[in-house]
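Below is a filled-in request sheet from our internal design queue. Each sheet records the structural input a requester submitted and the sequence that came back. We keep these sheets so that new team members can see what a complete request looks like end to end.

REQUESTER: design group, bay 2
PRIORITY: normal
MODE: inverse folding
CHAIN LENGTH: 177
BACKBONE (tokenized):
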């Protein structure tokens, strides 16, 4: 973290296929998901498979892995993680949705702070240091993008928390659209 914050880690940006980066991240978390019998699916329009964006493949892949590992960690066995890549007007949107414990609305911005771990008992029982989503935010921002969390599509608004899962939304600039 300190090397990233002090600029000692240099990003090496080049045009590369986003799908290769997403695929590499999925490959890395697949064994973890498989152990919990969690299905992982990737959806996108065919026209997006060859889209290249300016990225540091290593670090963007690491950011995606952080989100996907959390999706596996906080989801029960036998559920699904859906990864969607969607074309917007000037950016690509990556949605990583799980069927896990969800994140209370009042904690959604705090989860991206350094060393923050959720207040829920299910979160506290899991191993973690509270740096993964902080690093993910820093990496996504270095790419000119943004990240946020919302209720999963199966969730509701009762009590400020969805009943089923979280969707992490990452938006990255793309000049090819």
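RETURNED SEQUENCE:
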């Amino acid at each position: 973290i300190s090397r990233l914050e002090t600029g000692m880690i240099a990003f090496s940006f080049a045009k590369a296929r986003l799908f290769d980066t997403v695929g590499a991240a999925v490959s890395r978390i697949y064994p973890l998901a498989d152990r919990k019998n969690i299905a992982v699916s990737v959806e996108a329009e065919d026209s997006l498979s060859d889209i290249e964006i300016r990225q540091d493949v290593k670090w963007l892949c690491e950011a995606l892995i952080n989100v996907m590992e959390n999706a596996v960690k906080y989801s029960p066995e036998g559920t699904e993680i859906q990864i969607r890549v969607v074309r917007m007007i000037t950016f690509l949107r990556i949605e990583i949705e799980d069927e896990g414990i969800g994140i209370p609305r009042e904690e959604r911005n705090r989860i991206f702070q350094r060393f923050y771990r959720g207040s829920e008992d299910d979160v506290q029982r899991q191993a973690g240091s509270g740096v993964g989503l902080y690093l993910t935010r820093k990496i996504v921002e270095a790419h000119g993008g943004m990240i946020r969390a919302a209720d999963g599509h199966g969730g509701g608004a009762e009590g400020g928390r969805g009943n089923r899962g979280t969707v992490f939304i990452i938006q990255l600039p793309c000049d090819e659209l």
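SHEET NOTES:
- Helices lie at 2-5, 18-35, 57-73, 121-125, 132-142.
- Confidence is low (pLDDT under 50) at residues 155-163.
FILED BY: M.R.
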